[in-house]
Amino acid sequence: MSNPAPLRLGIAGLGTVGVGVIRIVRKHAKLIEERTGRPVAITAVSARNRAKDRGVDLKPYDWEDDPVSLATRDDVDVYVELMGGSDGPAKASVEAAIAAGKHVVTANKALLAHHGQAIAEAAEEAGVVLRFEAAVAGGIPVIKALTEGLAGNEITRVMGVMNGTCNYILTRMYDAELPYDVVFDEADKLGFLEADPQLDVGGIDAGHKLSLLSSIAFGTQVDFDGVELEGIERIQIADIEQAADMGYRIKLLGVAQMTGRGLEQRMSPCLVPAASPLGQLEGGTNMVVIEGDSVGQIVMRGAGAGEGPTASAVMGDVMDIARGITISTFGKAATALVETRPAKATVPAAYYLRMSLMDKPGALAKVAQVLGDAGVSINRMRQYGHDEGTAPVIIVTHTCTRAAVDEALAGLGTTGVVEGDPVAIRIEEV
Amino acid sequence: MSNPAPLRLGIAGLGTVGVGVIRIVRKHAKLIEERTGRPVAITAVSARNRAKDRGVDLKPYDWEDDPVSLATRDDVDVYVELMGGSDGPAKASVEAAIAAGKHVVTANKALLAHHGQAIAEAAEEAGVVLRFEAAVAGGIPVIKALTEGLAGNEITRVMGVMNGTCNYILTRMYDAELPYDVVFDEADKLGFLEADPQLDVGGIDAGHKLSLLSSIAFGTQVDFDGVELEGIERIQIADIEQAADMGYRIKLLGVAQMTGRGLEQRMSPCLVPAASPLGQLEGGTNMVVIEGDSVGQIVMRGAGAGEGPTASAVMGDVMDIARGITISTFGKAATALVETRPAKATVPAAYYLRMSLMDKPGALAKVAQVLGDAGVSINRMRQYGHDEGTAPVIIVTHTCTRAAVDEALAGLGTTGVVEGDPVAIRIEEV
């Protein structure tokens, strides 16, 4: 092979990930060329603040203030979008890049969760590649596994702990026996939280990721609005301890599966067996579990964020393009992706219920009656501790539908013996 | 796109994996075409016994008694070799397929461990694709992760528990408190063992797999002869229990890393922390751990064998070819793979030593002296139980080289206070 032309990158966004990509391209120039058969070079970069010292020398690269200008340069083959944001410059520049016939590699889960279908169709129409390994679960090559390695499977379920901040908070609450608020503040001080913390603790960020996995797994159009979102704010340390006592851990778990009624996507706190890989996941690490009809269960674990891991994912996509690998964004032609209706928690499960029961005669009997009327049968029940005038009670149900649980929760409010809102947490069989 | 031509497979070997591939191709014809953009069809098959009932209808396919004839048919685009064996018909037919310009997908670890370099060079020369996802860790898409998803990393270490039979035996010894011989016989009766059990319990099968991972990870020519092999036959239930008591599990663990002295590849029983993903792996499940300079540690876990998982891996490769993905067998041009010398356990570690110490005055002092002379310092020591005239003693060393341990073991034989051969098991930091 005689001196193949380099693949030329334009990188927009020079936060930790952008800087990480620059570092890899420099440090591993030889390795990259050996593996892909051609050099990978950076032509130009763009970011908000040109003056900022990022610890890497940017002089070798042209500077563009406007990412759209960067994305459409004649000397850019691949536009690497690392700015983030579901709209604004990220969306405009990605669209401009595609229109200009550039391949796109992005780490932007929000952009694709909201506009993935339109952007993938545009890329397909333009005959360019749009890849996003870095958008889901950081360094774990899960998009590749799902799209390519496991392509021979009908996927039956995808699960994931994909927000390291939430997993850090829940793990820390358990380890240090600290309440949610205290650990939340800790995480904030450590810089673990997004500017809008709801992106993390409200499950939005992880929900974005789940919606992208769902699309590939089930051949459906990305449907972030169809993700039932529930954050971790209502999890108390008592829940974590009671769950642990029964052999469970609480995780902010994403679950997607196709049901007879449509695509079910949930991102919510769940109890998972302490001895399972998901239950054993601690701190900021991510895990994705893929279940296929032939392969059974595949578990992938790794760093979900950070300069190195996320840049590694970006480079995986870039090197695929350098190798000439052209694959549909969501694993099949964008125009063939099916529009499905969202199914709201139709898959039955056992539930963990916590409520504050008043010291009144027959209180427990009333609770049992309401649950029974809703079709929720009790597997085990325990009272722990005692507050003034009320006692916290934990009930683990037998398998039932979420609708039955919701009916029971509504009914509990009318008994006059339950103080405040009861909490229901799904127990996911993993 | 107007009716693209089907990708036509010729499948040699109709054991569980071959049958599994046929089942997937039939069951998921639509899904496969949607994902790859073209149909995948089976033209012809070959196996030793035509009359055998395999539970699938073979009438739609031409039959070839000779796999070489199958591999070179004009109406075959991809030769799928699922017969196994490092030489004989597997090798002859793969070579014939390549010479005839066919792509090759194989699950044959022995063939590639012994002849991978020559076969990869031939494939490259012929401009065809040779892929082997199914040869390593069953359904886990680890070859793809290492070759493509993590391609931007310098790989620093690869580890794996990749022989389900050994892991079953070790797990079962621990759970049921049964000695090795009894569990070995159980595994044999359950059909878990290869015709030559040394392939399993001697670490050969897992060693084949490790040598293939090493080649991709380090860009080196496959060097199975460079794998230091040690089987699990000498592991006693006491070792497993003592290890557990100290917070470890014993696994047949493969470890490959590049050192200043060459490529170190070991497949041997190791102590790993009980709380680590490797330590928590039970039964027949496989796990591969990949460590890269940017990505950190990626852990992949799944079924290491069986019809569905292995066929899933074969189909991943087939569908890559249907999608037009052409990638070098070992991740870079075969002619660019480096010939490295094997390094024998140069990476230091702590070791677990078990010996049978005679009831003689000063026995322990002599042992300590020998270890000290060899440069092996003792971290902790314990005596457990007592046999007639001897006492089993466990010593955990501080980090030292394998050479120092070997010197100590040789020295122990000359003390006159150690009965039989001491056992040394590496404690791998994972």
Automatic annotation (TrEMBL), chains A, B:
SUPFAM superfamilies membership: ACT-like, Glyceraldehyde-3-phosphate dehydrogenase-like, C-terminal domain, NAD(P)-binding Rossmann-fold domains
Pathway involvement of the protein, from the record: Amino-acid biosynthesis; L-methionine biosynthesis via de novo pathway; L-homoserine from L-aspartate: step 3/3; Amino-acid biosynthesis; L-threonine biosynthesis; L-threonine from L-aspartate: step 3/5
Coiled coil: none
Keywords noted in UniProt: Amino-acid biosynthesis, Methionine biosynthesis, NADP, Oxidoreductase, Threonine biosynthesis
UniProt xrefs under InterPro entries: ACT-like_dom_sf, ACT_dom, Asp/hSer_DH_NAD-bd, HDH, HDH_cat, NAD(P)-bd_dom_sf
GO MF assignments: homoserine dehydrogenase activity; NADP binding
Gene Ontology biological-process annotations: methionine biosynthetic process; threonine biosynthetic process
Residues bound to L-homoserine: 194
Membrane-spanning residues: none
Domain ACT residues, every copy: 352-426
Origin: domain of life: Bacteria
EC number: 1.1.1.3
Enzyme class, UniProt record, top EC level: oxidoreductase
Active site: 209 (proton donor)
Residues reported in the UniProt entry to bind NADPH: 109
UniProt xrefs under Pfam families: ACT (PF01842), Homoserine_dh (PF00742), NAD_binding_3 (PF03447)
Family to which this protein belongs: Belongs to the homoserine dehydrogenase family.
NCBIfam families named among the record's database cross-references: PRK06349.1 (NF004976)
Name of the protein: Homoserine dehydrogenase
Species the sequence originates in: Maritimibacter harenae
